[in-house]
Every structure is written in structure tokens, then in C-alpha cells.
Amino acid sequence: MFRWPDGKEWRLAALIFLVFAIASSSFGLASGLFSYKLIDDPYALLRTGAIALFIPALFEELLFRGPLIVLAPRFGANTIAALVVGSLALFAIWHPLNASIILTEAQDLFFDWRFLVVAFFLGIATTITAIKTRSVWPGVAIHWVAVMLWKALLDGPTFF
After folding, report:
1. pLDDT tens track of the chain, all 160 residues?
2. Closest CA to 126 of 5, 16, 2, 12
3. Cα angle vertex 95, ends 98, 102, to 5°?
4. For a surface tag, which of 31, 38, 52, 151 has the fewest beta carbons within 10 Å of its beta carbon?
5. What total number of domains does the chain contain?
6. Beta-carbon-side half-sphere exposure of residue 37 (alpha carbons within 13 Å)
7. Which domain holds residue 64?
């Protein structure tokens, strides 16, 4: 799970990220969830970047994709498919649950169906990456870069 991927696996992760970025930004802009706006406080972006590396990127990838990396080699295709669906469902449910209990200031956003669609796209991208690379690191990178681009270029809110 913690092994460092080789160059081919990083290139695959970059391709998966590109597909995710095109799909999510197209949907986000078309639905009004995203709007182009450069962040005006670079220090807030640095602070957010440092925090976002651990929460949500590392924490959520370990929680939702880590078990898939460990369990996938031990099971057949049907069981892996069920694990993937379960992981994606838990990832989608996690956001409103998190906003209800922990990050209450994010309730409006984390209950917004458009945000949940983009989060689902992210979950699909990081799940495919985790299974294909057998490592958590490319998913952490994808998750972190997605959050940072959202915050820096697409008027994403700053909760921390």
C-alpha cells in the first residue's frame, strides 16, 4: 500500500487525473458549482495546501482506498467489484456525514448534489489509480492537486 510507484504508474495516474480534471471541471463549470476565480490570498493557499495534504488527501485515501489496495490481490473480480462499490458509496456518504458532525461550516457545500457528483468522480479516479498502481501515493497526489486547483482557480471555499 505504501510502496512508491514506478514511472509508468505515475504516468497512468497523471492520465487518470487528466480525465478526472476534464470531466469534473466541465461538470462543475456547467452546473455552476465552479467559477473561474484566482485566489487572492497566497498565504491562505499555502496554509490550505499544507493542511489539505493530510486532511482530506492522505486521510481519505488511506481510509477509503487503502483497504482496496490491501484486499484486491486476495479476492476475485466479483468481490473486488463489491468492495469498490462499497468504498465509493462510503466516500460519497462521508462528505455529508463529515459536514454534519465535524466540518459543520461545510454543510451547504457537502450536501450540494453537484459537489457530491464531483466527489464521486474523484472517488472513481482515485479508486482506479489505487487498484492499478497498488499504492496510496498517486491517489493522495490526485486528491491533493484536485483540492488545490479548486481552491486556487475555481473559487473553492477555505474551511481551514
Report:
1. 999 999 999 999 999 999 999 999 999 999 999 999 999 898 999 999 999 999 999 999 999 999 999 999 999 999 999 999 999 999 999 999 999 999 999 999 999 999 999 999 999 999 999 999 999 999 999 999 999 999 999 999 987 7
2. 16
3. 15
4. 38
5. 1
6. 11
7. 7-153
